[in-house]
Specification:
By secondary structure, the chain is of the alpha+beta class. It folds into two domains: 59 residues; 154 residues, Electron Transport, Fmn-binding Protein, Chain A (Pnp Oxidase, Chain A, Roll), CATH 2.30.110. The protein is 40% helix and 30% strand. The protein has a seven-stranded antiparallel β-sheet, with helices on both faces. Strands 1-11-12 form a three-stranded antiparallel β-sheet. The longest helix has 56 residues. The radius of gyration is 39 Å and the shape is globular. The chain starts with a helix and ends with a helix.
Length: 225
């Protein structure tokens, strides 16, 4: 092999090496570019989720605000105070209720709303009978008794409470206007159950009713004053 051939061989080796180095560099650049793309994608994705989480945390809880606004508004709605009583196969029970309304006079029908966790509701549904006792203004102590204010001291809410005879099994509180009912339809709504009562007997009282307003038991004269 002469000198010229050696020179050509060296050039070919250099060229081959250069090509190999170029391919290697190109592969490394491609790898680096791919890693860079993944990094950018991950960075953008992380920032996006971070912003979404921050926005979620900074947004007001509209459901909570609506509930508080509703409760604030209801403080200025005056309601008569009733004690819903029941007696029968599930035993005797009673609870103070302000959510009471007439439904119809043809036939005579009323409704009451009881908390779904109420033991009185459970007994009422089993007994199929109940009485709505609309309390007179002097019966704040009865309202508090059946609202559970004294349950730790008095286990029987009916202890010492004067009752009046009626056609139904459910207790009628003396001095109250009483609507004695057979249980009709029930409807669950939110935290309460709406109970329809078909009237079988009414005891009309002659008194000024006790009022519940601004989360307090009041006399009508307190509101007028």
């Amino acid at each position: 092999m002469n000198q010229t051939d050696k020179n050509h061989l060296d050039v070919d080796r250099v060229r081959t090496h250069a090509i190999q180095v170029g391919l290697l560099v190109s592969a490394e650049i491609s790898l680096a570019y791919g890693l860079l793309q993944k990094f950018i994608y991950f960075h953008v994705l992380t920032n996006t989720f971070s912003k979404l989480n921050m926005n979620k945390q900074s947004q007001p809880d509209t459901k909570l605000d609506l509930r508080e606004d509703f409760l604030a508004g209801m403080r200025y709605v005056a309601n008569s105070v009733t004690v819903v009583t029941t007696n029968g196969v599930a035993g005797i029970s009673g609870v103070t209720v302000s959510a009471f309304s007439s439904v119809s006079a043809d036939p005579p029908t009323v409704l009451v709303c009881l908390n779904s966790a109420s033991s009185t509701l459970e007994a009422l549904q089993a007994n199929k009978d109940f009485c709505v006792n609309v309390l007179p203004e002097g019966a704040k102590h009865i309202a508090e008794r059946f609202a559970g204010f004294h349950d730790t001291a008095i286990s029987d809410r009916f202890e010492g409470i004067d009752l009046t005879d009626s056609k139904g099994p459910s207790p009628v509180i003396s001095g109250a206007t009483a609507f004695i009912c057979k249980l009709g339809e029930t409807l669950s709504s939110g935290s309460h159950v709406i109970c329809i009562g078909h009237i079988v007997e009414t005891h009309a009282g002659n008194f000024t009713p006790l009022i519940y307003m601004d989360r307090k038991f009041k006399r009508i004269s307190d509101i007028e004053g």
